Amino acid sequence: MSKLVIVGTVAFDAIETPFGKTDKILGGAATYIGLSASNFNVDAAAVSVVGGDFPQEYLDLLTNRGVNIDGIEIIKEGKTFFWSGKYHNDMNSRDTLATELNVLEHFNPVVPGDYKDADIVMLGNLHPSVQQSVLDQMTTKPKLAILDTMNFWMDIALDDLKSVIKNVDVITINDEEARQLSGEYSLVVAARKIHEMGPKYVVIKKGEHGALLFHNDEVFYAPALPLEEVFDPTGAGDTFAGGFAGYLASTGDTSFENMKNAVIYGSTLASFCVEKFGTERMLNLTDKEVYKRLQAFKNLTQFDIKLT
Amino acid sequence: MSKLVIVGTVAFDAIETPFGKTDKILGGAATYIGLSASNFNVDAAAVSVVGGDFPQEYLDLLTNRGVNIDGIEIIKEGKTFFWSGKYHNDMNSRDTLATELNVLEHFNPVVPGDYKDADIVMLGNLHPSVQQSVLDQMTTKPKLAILDTMNFWMDIALDDLKSVIKNVDVITINDEEARQLSGEYSLVVAARKIHEMGPKYVVIKKGEHGALLFHNDEVFYAPALPLEEVFDPTGAGDTFAGGFAGYLASTGDTSFENMKNAVIYGSTLASFCVEKFGTERMLNLTDKEVYKRLQAFKNLTQFDIKLT
User: Which domains does chain B have, with CATH numbers?
Assistant: First the structure.
């Protein structure tokens, strides 16, 4: 079975949307990525850090979905990373109400020995030097290194970010971040400039407008499934990345053609994530539900114009 | 050959974009719709009105592409409708600098006798009562009536608009207009409410984010081709509508499955329209170019996940 290493936050989130609000619930990039990747036949391990306040039952949720947690350090005297945000009515923008780094401030990720030869490394959104230190721990070059990041690191650690971007095969960012990173408005031109920074594949996430996959002069566009209601967008991008990485790891095929399928799987899983608060919808997702939604994605996008 | 009646403006446009500006050039909804539909094997006729200032050579451009202009009235002592607009840097918003209705103010469309039994009627953006009067002139019920409109008519003639909407099979509007017309933010819910107003098919245009086709509980999503540069978005929506209507007319098949193909053709033709100022790109478009871009659309959207 292919091995997938995931580094990212495991955290408490408190979320407010027009549909309601939560207390501190399970969140974090590595959590969403792991839960999403767990829908595939893959040996996934999360590398992260939590405080002594983090409930064992949350860790059990990951273990129950088959995500190895040996790489999640528990700092007993520390407090878990906490993020709180509020979504506006259109769900496309949000205010961050609180960010308490806590144990994340001095996070030194340690990849468990068994996973230093992982096939795929998924670097969730974190300080770029932390992402780099995970790559540095790999004893064999992974078949594919995927990096997710955000505008925050472009603002405060651009050099470190550019340095780690050079070393990855795939980058996943949203449209505004692609524009900021490249200085280009056109996403086609932005993707080309980001290619030149290192990654052979550039995935640009456009939320409700879907996701674009660029590779050389080729492009693939996966729409998002139009939903009656987006309940809580938190974690959708990480769930996308987890589905993308999990599918590629499970198939062992990192060709551009198979990456198109991976984008569709990522979009499919993200469409579930937003249906309930936090990780709720992802915790009991069944293969049958995923299968049915893939069928919906086919109906949504496939057409029959014969070109001879 | 199937007959297609197109009603809409034939006009002068003056356009300013970040790439330059034009004097008065050929524009108007019926112009773009007609030029786009002319890429199909269809007998298309434009119904419109111009003033004595309108150059014969502009009318010849339509005739040369095979668009019948018997229904374009020329009011010698009148002036042609004029619109002027300026696009912002992101190309997604524009300011209207001038709107001179001129001969359009008292426009009484007259469908030529030969076209009163047309298979498809495409009602371009105009006062809804003018659109209705075209429907009223048809001696046989068209196989498909398609209506395009805009927020302006929702603001000043909502009752007339709702009345004509009841009588059409397909409505094409953009996302913001769908929200305004339905009072719903979610496009899925908006489409359902617009269904209930009459049209069995609802097409929601999202510009660079593509177009959605809704029918009962089914939905199809055609992305827009990611372009390096959008030179001038003027007419893209009408070109989409013209490709949609022209393809349906030429195939004689108005099923939902074939409408998916029509949306792809519409998107394909619109992707050419924005490459140059005004109608320039559409005037000398070849079948070969269209074919190549359809192939690009296939590569853009088609994937190969086997679902058994």
Answer: 3-301 (3.40.1190.20)
